[in-house]
Design brief:
It contains three helices and two strands. It is mainly α and about 100 residues long. It has two domains: about 60 residues; about 35 residues, no CATH class. The chain has a two-stranded antiparallel sheet. It is rod-shaped and about 80 Å long.
Amino acid sequence: MVSLIIGLIAAVVGVIGVIVQQGWMALFRMQSWFAVILVGLLFVGIAYALLWIAILPLRLVLRARLADPGVKLLKSKRPGITAVRFSNPQYADAFRKANSLIP
């Protein structure tokens, strides 16, 4: 969304630049509009790439902290009993405490 806003602002600046350099009549030519749209799309791409690169370390840190706890439901032969296996031991302990399963 931020990259789209930056691209829109760049396109508006491009329209203003066309008006200042060539006058209002330049807006009636298709070449001017193609240039404005091209500038807007170019800035959308640049802003998206820069934001993706800037946010990548944050995403990696959050992925490590908010990773999937690795819950696996196991089949049980007895009715009314569900066996659950956790790959993260701390998460398993927290699950036991939250559900009063600790003896």
